[in-house]
Design brief:
Elements: H1 17-36, H2 43-49, H3 56-80, H4 83-101, H5 107-134, H6 146-171, H7 176-180, H8 182-220, H9 239-247
Helix pairs in contact: 1-5, 1-6, 1-8, 3-5, 4-5, 4-8
Length: 248
């Protein structure tokens, strides 16, 4: 599709492209911070959960392994279905595991819920990738070039990793507050994404119903070529990527 004929960035999300990008970036900030925050929490964390100093790297490793192993399957799941269920699953796992990590005792339970937190991070990452790729990055976003958008995205991830290290070192004996902070921050990122995806889903249903009605009207008028209406379901995030590639 020629450049001039392509829709503006964010039109597929009712003009909410900037909000969507910011919310996805915040979610990845939290994912990166969640990976590094436990590394510098120090003796207070180890004493509360019976972690030996030599076991502390495993608290990072199980998180990263769950994130790395699950992000691609969840990304493929989004391509076959929709992003909203995976997003909600990721939000729930990330928040619940963050809270549970402040309550459990014992190294085994702590490491297990770190793996669950990594699974939630994988769902958030897969959703963020699907949503950002659904934007038309061949165009500018408020005058910013795509390479600048990718640079900002990378900077946010690096900042999240560094913030996690700093937060773990600062909280000390109050290490639980660093994990409780994930609750409001995750809600700040998740609520706008859920609202945008739900509004997009309602619009797709309306477009599909309108296309079906037009196809029925064309068939009733006896036009043999007029029945090529929509598929009744609209194009969702993930499914829409194939449609964009075909249109381009």
């Amino acid at each position: 599709m020629p450049r001039a004929e392509r829709p503006a960035v964010g039109d597929g999300f009712d003009g909410g492209g900037r909000v969507l990008y910011a919310a996805c970036a915040l979610s990845q900030f939290l994912v990166a911070a969640g990976a590094s925050v436990v590394t510098t929490m120090g003796p207070a964390l180890r004493e509360a959960n019976g972690l030996r100093a030599s076991w502390l790297p495993w608290a990072v490793l199980v998180y990263v392994l769950a994130l790395g192993l699950l992000v691609l399957p969840l990304r493929l799941l989004i391509r076959r279905t929709r992003a909203l269920p995976v997003l909600i699953l990721g939000l729930w796992l990330f928040v619940q595991s963050s809270v549970t990590l402040t309550l459990v005792s014992g190294a085994t339970a702590f490491l297990a819920f770190r793996a669950v937190q990594g699974a939630g991070a994988a769902a958030l990452t897969a959703t963020a990738l699907a949503l950002v790729l659904a934007l038309d990055l061949d165009l500018d976003l408020d005058g910013q070039r795509p390479d600048r958008l990718l640079l900002v995205w990378s900077a946010v991830v690096v900042a999240g990793f560094g913030t996690g290290l700093a937060a773990g070192a600062v909280v000390g004996a109050d290490w639980r507050w660093a994990l409780w902070a994930n609750v409001p921050l995750t809600a700040t990122a998740g609520i706008p994404l859920i609202r945008l995806l739900r509004s997009t889903r309602r619009r797709d249903k309306a477009v599909g119903a309108s296309a079906s009605a037009s196809a029925s009207a064309g068939a009733g008028s006896g036009d043999g070529d007029g029945g090529g209406g929509g598929d009744g379901g609209g194009v969702g995030v993930g499914q829409g990527e194939e449609a964009q590639d075909a249109a381009a």
